[in-house]
Automatic annotation (TrEMBL):
It comes from Pseudoalteromonas obscura. This is BadF/BadG/BcrA/BcrD ATPase family protein. Signal peptide: none annotated. InterPro entries: ATPase_BadF, ATPase_NBD, Euk-type_GlcNAc_Kinase. Residues 13-290 form the ATPase BadF/BadG/BcrA/BcrD type domain. Pfam families: BcrAD_BadFG (PF01869).
Length: 303
């Protein structure tokens, strides 16, 4: 396979790290996107070492896709948008990482998602993937709501939805809660016949494992299962309230990003559903724009 032609201009890499996967894109000012790579979970809240591993795996695959030698990593200006680094301790920990890039610029996945969704312009964004959170940038002032983490909140997210499904299924199996098709679905999925069999297999699992169960809830809701419908409607109601809160800041655009953004849209408050616009660029491109802006700001300060 012929390597892609790479001009000798400055190269950037944008990295979008969330609770389930990490995407990396290498970008040339002259030639645009050169290569992409996909790694595993990259939320330092759920494991610092795993996050670093996922960043490096996605970076290496993007370099290969771009036809670049692995040593080229030292020439990359890196923009990183990671889940979890809104917590100061985790931000500091990542910043202390002895990274291989020419220079690294770190911010939250919400920030880079917003930059990408509106191509650097003002706007608001809601992430509904493994976790959930809202962010808006208007006239240089940013606000964010939610994003408190799987155990504390993240309503409307895949992980929250999966957890609610497990809880409902266990109650139904023990005949302590309403009957739901989720019980049989999860017993089949985990190849068990008991509530304890499900509980044992989910014990200690990260948010990404619960997020993988969200598809069962959405499917059951489409089949009019009352328990699943209540879960989906409760999640969508939270996301709608989050959107209304963001719109109080008068952003010119609102986008939703993440694996549940499309499935949840039909359940949103109609007033919100009609104003949601597709993101102009993906979060990893937002991370690239963030790196470019950061380099330009450094250059201006140096003059």
């Amino acid at each position: 396979m012929m390597a892609k032609q790479v001009e000798q201009d400055q190269l950037y890499i944008g990295i979008d790290g969330g609770g389930t996967k990490c995407r990396a894109t290498i970008y040339s000012i002259k030639n645009g996107v050169l290569g992409t790579g996909l790694g595993g979970p990259a939320n330092p809240l759920h494991g610092f070492e795993r996050t670093i591993e996922s960043i490096m795996v996605s970076t290496q695959l993007a370099l290969q896709d771009a036809g670049l030698r692995i040593e080229a990593v030292h020439n990359l200006y890196a923009g990183l948008g990671l889940a979890g680094v809104n917590l100061p301790a985790l931000h500091e920990k990542i910043m202390r990482w002895d990274h291989p890039f020419k220079q690294m610029f770190l911010t939250t996945d919400l920030h880079t998602a917003c930059i990408g969704a509106h191509e650097g312009g003002d706007g608001a964004v809601i992430i509904t993937g493994t976790g959930s959170c809202g962010f808006a940038m208007v006239d240089g002032v940013s606000v964010n709501y939610g994003g408190h983490g799987f155990a504390q909140g993240d309503m409307g997210s895949g992980a929250w939805m999966g957890l609610e499904a497990v809880k409902a299924a266990l109650l139904a199996i023990d005949k302590l809660g309403p009957t739901t098709s989720l019980s049989d679905t999860l017993k089949q999925h985990f190849n068990t016949t008991t509530a304890m069999g499900i509980a044992e297999q989910m014990a200690g699992k990260p948010s990404s494992s619960y997020a993988q169960l969200a598809r069962f809830v959405l499917a059951a809701a489409e089949d009019k299962d009352d328990v699943a419908l209540n879960i989906v409607k409760e999640g969508a109601d939270y996301i709608s309230k989050l959107a209304h809160r963001l719109m109080e800041n008068n952003p010119p655009r609102l986008s939703m990003i993440g694996g549940l953004s499309e499935p949840l849209r039909k359940w949103l408050d109609p007033e919100i559903a009609k104003i949601v616009e597709s993101p102009k660029q993906p979060p990893e491109m937002g991370a690239i724009f963030f790196a470019i802006q950061s380099v330009e700001q450094q250059s201006e300060k140096a003059v």
